[in-house]
# Entry
Amino acid sequence: MANRFEGKVAIVTGGNSGIGEATGRQFAAEGAKTVLMARREEQGRAVAESIRASGGEATFIRCDVSDCDSVEAAIAAAVETHGRIDVLFNNAGAGARGNFPDESNEDWDRVIGVNLTGTFYVSRAAWPHLVAAGGGAVVQMSSLAAQRGFSSRMQDEYGTAASSYYAAKAGIDALTRYMAGVGGRHNIRVNCVRPGQILTPMAAGGTINDPDGGHHVFEKMFDFHQIVQGPGYPQDVANLVAFLASDDARFISGEIVNIDGGVAAKI
Ligand code: NAP
# Structure
């Protein structure tokens, strides 16, 4: 196993589950002091403990990324413990059910709050520490929803996430390019990953509207839409995020990389 993050401090939001958990494990396996942040403490502490049990370095700090005070306290606590931040993976996110125009203000605010505003709050709080470390890498979490739409027939057959999710993730794409520009002079690279369907609790549990349950629809979707056969797994995304966050990607910034089994390449 490569040791690309030896001596580095890596923060992963949404690090207690799914893609964030897999990426936290990857960072730690490659030598990072890994800080997992999310709201469910028991789950977060269990993941950190299991990383430590396999020889990695990890801690969990409770953080609600949509709450500015919570974010600032969590970043301050991480810096107090480790003294620096080198890598930030802004992964925390949530979807909502509901099809436009039947979407509530509450769902809109919550989904924009976690995905887009949360990415902004965490990035803003971590930024001075990345600058102070002499540079670093930020990876953001978008979604194929930011890039692709759907037809009425697809909506009927598979359902869709709410419009707030599409809008929030597209905002993250734009924020990525903006932050990359600002990061240039500070040696901070900012990139973004855009997954299609990845088999995690969020996807299998169904941000997708279907009476048969999300998992069933999920399988139908990747069978129909992907070029690569079978589901994407959290580790697939973790491998890409670790690459983008490492010096192997030293000449890449402002990029949004699809990881979708080829969905976006199709008609
Ligand atoms: P997941 O296992 O449900 O993970 C979501 C993570 O976000 C959890 O760790 C959750 O922890 C955290 N989170 C949610 N709200 C939060 C808040 N307010 N503050 C802090 N953390 C919060 O699902 P996942 O699929 O791995 O999702 C991870 C990211 O990938 C999301 O941004 C999602 O939009 C994106 N994505 C997933 C897919 C897919 O197919 N799975 C596709 C495209 C994009 P707590 O609930 O404990 O806070």
